[in-house]
UniProtKB/TrEMBL annotation:
Protein name as catalogued: Protein translocase subunit SecE
Organism: Scleromatobacter humisilvae
Protein localization: Membrane
Domain of life of the source: Bacteria
Main location group: membrane
UniProt keywords, alphabetically: Cell membrane, Membrane, Protein transport, Translocation, Transmembrane, Transmembrane helix, Transport
Pfam families found in the cross-reference section: SecE
GO biological process: one example: intracellular protein transmembrane transport
GO terms assigned for molecular function: protein transmembrane transporter activity
Cleavable signal peptide: none
Amino acid sequence: MATNSQIETVNTSADKAKLAAAALLLLGGIVAFYSLGRLDLWIRVVALLALVALAVGAFFTSESGKQLIGFGKESVKEVKKVVWPTRKEALQNTAMVFAFVFLMALFLWITDKTLEFVLYDLILGWKR
């Protein structure tokens, strides 16, 4: 597996403008939602969703958005390479986890009751 140890960050003024526009559109959507308080709810929601969609579109046209899309595509490729356990293996592993949890709970309960008996009954002499 080859890893790229160098990270290039290229911030052009156009890229910064796209990110600023996306932020302003997102902020504008929130402001529009609350400033249109006298109108029906569906109109406010449509205005909010439209401005958020424009903000997302502006973000994905920037270099950061393109890198995010590339990361998503690579992640999907990696997930396809995963060897998933069979149903039988998954059930066996789940049963082992439940058995271990039960045994640990039993051990802790026995330890608690033993310490309770030793401390309260034998050492302090408090009979219940």
